[in-house]
């Protein structure tokens, strides 16, 4: 049994994990940087340990201080939250080696899925459709040309150890390949310390969908349906919804079944997500996020599962006692991320409340939005019986928000929720550019 | 401007377009602020008058102490081994590079060295207890 | 169709109705007293009309100003909220006569149910068990003695036009009857302008349960299960939960079926509640609340129905398209009322948020808790898969609350949630006295 | 200025246009602040220097007016009938119990009477528009 958890994260996600600990009667110890001493996670936690100065490299990425803090605070487990060390196989291994429970997949699973080439191989082996592309890292230009002509242009070069849009290059014809390959290698080396790149078919207008899974590592894998995360700005998700307005029942079933099978073959343990690109009636495996995701509340509201609670219970060795037919997905959920566009002291902070609305945040009036970390201010998540009602509820909720002292994307989000393409459900990943950049031009 | 001529400062400020002024010297700190409504109005120059000030007394030099904090998370030890004498005591003087304490983290004994020659004024952390990053360990006085 | 609603209420319930209007795309006009000019309902509404000074008699009970405001603001309907004019048949009639829609039952239904003797007759006629008692008002002392000996002591005398604990007298033996009857008549006359009293068996340790119903007035009546409101202080509800921890499945079914039948016989239109006293395996009809109730969110969380939305849709003439089997009651919900124990300016106001928690309030930091109106500050409502988890979640939520500037019952509510009798589910309506008054003695 | 000459500082502050002044020295900390309402008022000339000022004009006694508000919600009419002349105009004087206007509510014309004799200084509500409870209708001056 887990009696105490060290939470190696910050912001709203640290608060989320603290709340799950409280609900389970588990002592929550928050590891924080000096910049975060006054934040809500520290305030709500049973105990807190300062693990370093503001820069993430010396605090939230400082494995050693985090593990020592967990040991000296007599914690049984570490919850890595999202981002930071949550998908770092070496950290997971070090946590295990220190005799602690890592709340997440086994370190081997993280290591395998962290390598894009290996992950694609695993997906292929499990029978998942992948975008046509090189299975292996590109050896040289000749190899690249051969692969590209098989796949068909446009192709995209990706860092094999990468993620988050870095080290990616789109190549539309063979004459551009040499320069692009050199550049992609250079960036891959720079950002991820590994210059291996592979090649995939580039989809011009795909939707980003992901399947949420829960797996006990003992043979039971459940899916909680999909999240449609197609509204993005520079590869950062802005709005996430479930169910997707464009997914047919047969496509949904196929994607969910594929995802469950992949997790079964991986012997996956914990919560995780399989990401897909969908174009027309085809879908392609993209990657596995071997951790909790920022947008997890969307799935919590349609399934009424508590994903963080489930993560902790699975880490305790509890088997999932339910089967897929016990998972009732009902209604519609939508998450809107309110991001800061500037750092500073928040003078006024009014969040919506009342029926159908959930707010996950760590800020209040007087808090400082730190320049050191990501700019997520709050997640506003709504549930309604239908998408149409849900969009109304979200508009009502956003209208209640008041944030003064820092600039935010609130007005942009209001525009997106209210725009015709979004309400119709027919839009691509360029929606933000079309709606918000247009607006700026007119302003 | 060792002797603060307040009148002159005020006059200069009054005739400027500033809305705030802060002035510090070893003896004084002065802050002036003008509300936004008035600062745009034209003002007559302040009447000048002679201000008699006594010669400044030298500020009594306070003993400057500094705090040495923990650079890592770990367990704080004042002795290299259970029975060994402590590296330092209150009143000890150390040279730069002298060891002040060890902080154990993951079975490794990390020796914390002094950055400069100093006298130990106070030991702030409890021996054999956990210390966090940035936690005060020693109050010292440079020598 | 209703395009605009005048909301003739204040506080959190006015905010609740404003939000429902926004969700439906209906223009919300709030009628407010001078004391409430700066409250959230006024701020969130599309428009607002001042209808009188602070005293309720001249504002929230001023039918004429309210109806004129609705007409001049071109509203189609009036929502009376809870309390105030919500169960006033003459008001409902006046609204109808002015050509407006009253969002609630027909005025005749309200008139019938507002008379306790008539309501008991209707319940009897529909085959509901009622506490043994006089069907008619007591004629005189001899009639009282005859009735009391048939019923068996202890009995309780109640004002036939009354409610809320006023004009009630418990009589434990015949010798006390004469004095008690005179007093009860006097109080009934004083409070309700009608000295008619009737007599019922007095139950020493009953539970207060109520069945939530939704009826379209066209033959379809749905129930959303029960709420257990047994934790009270001076007849004021403090905690409400669903499902009840003491109700057997067979008793629940019987109560729900009886309630549905009663509403069918009444031709009831709108949302309403049938209240029962339960002792052992017996239940007795008490009264019908012909309106929305403060604790309605409890049923909203277990059923995922939006009761205020449903009220408005029914008032628009929409039929309920669902049948009882489509109503899925799942998990557990609990509401905790945070009440002010003093009036004044609220200096600090922090409400809980995050997973499983809903907050309905109208206050924020800087607001004034008015001495003119009821003291409800906020309703904190949680949902969890089970009662055990729910109590944990509520404790976590209450621990996040910070209110400075006025005294509240927060600490008492924390005591109640955490106390052994409440968590066991076995307690009576005297729980507050046992737990909180005890605590005060020790303090 | 080791010895704080408070009188002098106050005088300087008074004659300046500052809204705030903070002064610290090892012995004293002084903070001066002028509220926004006061800083706009004329201040008596400072005693430090001779300043030629015109004698202050006596404040012109402001004419006291009162507001008559609507006692109900309804539609505001200045005339008893569409073509009839208004009950009052700006400049009219009325006696107590004289009718000022009618407010229609539920088809009833409610006549609003003056509580006291007064002159109508201004009509504040728009004729034939909705008025709320407490809404200002007339600005009047008692006579």
From TrEMBL, chains B, D:
Keyword annotations of the record? Biotin
| UniProt xrefs under InterPro entries | AcCoA_biotinCC (IPR001249), Biotin_Carboxyl_Carrier/Decarb (IPR050709), Biotin_lipoyl (IPR000089), Single_hybrid_motif (IPR011053)
Q: Which GO terms describe its biological process?
A: fatty acid biosynthetic process
Keyword Transferase assigned:
no
Q: Which GO terms describe its molecular function?
A: acetyl-CoA carboxylase activity
Q: Where is the Lipoyl-binding domain?
A: 65-141
Instruction: Extract the ranges annotated as region (Disordered).
Output: 34-62
Q: Which residue intervals are annotated with compositional bias (Low complexity) in the record?
A: 46-56
Report the GO terms under cellular component.
acetyl-CoA carboxylase complex
Name under which the protein is recorded:
Biotin carboxyl carrier protein of acetyl-CoA carboxylase
